[in-house]
Write a structure and sequence with these properties.
- Pathway: Cofactor biosynthesis; tetrahydrofolate biosynthesis; 2-amino-4-hydroxy-6-hydroxymethyl-7,8-dihydropteridine diphosphate from 7,8-dihydroneopterin triphosphate: step 3/4.
- This is 7,8-dihydroneopterin aldolase.
- With 120 residues, the protein is α+β, with helices and mostly antiparallel strands.
- The chain has a single domain, classed as GTP cyclohydrolase I, C-terminal domain/NADPH-dependent 7-cyano-7-deazaguanine reductase, N-terminal domain (GTP Cyclohydrolase I, domain 2), CATH 3.30.1130.
- It is built from four helices and four strands.
- The protein has helices at residues 19-24, 39-44, 53-65, 72-87; strands spanning 2-13, 26-36, 93-100, 112-119.
- The longest helix has 16 residues, at 72-87.
């Protein structure tokens, strides 16, 4: 078993509860961690024995740029759905963290983050 990770993936989206967020848009940052058997890929050097992180990046970016949500909880859940639909036959487990930096609340903090995980 092993892990494939994409860290600090940036996607520009039009998500949020406030109207301005859906008009102006903002970047979201994601961490995606995939757990799957990697031994054969390691032994054979064969891309077909693993999940291509380039494909995961493209699939997630394309899907998130085409859809709008109110909540980053829904964004995170949707990414887990995408991963399961496309890679569920190889995937054992996935963890997704979604961070939002431009949050329309008064206060001082770096970001808000939602973390969800799922077994496949």
């Amino acid at each position: 078993m092993g892990k494939v990770r994409i860290n600090n993936m940036l996607v520009y989206t039009y998500n949020g509860v406030m109207g301005e967020e859906k008009v102006l848009g903002q970047k979201l940052e994601l961490d995606i961690e995939l757990t799957l058997p990697l031994e054969e890929a390691g032994k054979t050097d064969d891309l077909h024995q693993t999940i291509s992180y380039a494909d995961v990046y493209t699939d997630v970016k394309t899907a998130l740029e085409a859809k709008s949500f109110d909540l980053i909880e829904a964004v995170t859940y949707y990414v887990l759905d995408i991963l399961g639909e496309k890679y569920g036959d190889m995937l054992e487990h996935a963890l997704v963290r979604t961070r939002k930096y431009h949050v329309p609340i008064a206060g001082f903090f770096d970001n808000v983050e939602i973390e969800m995980e799922r077994d496949y």
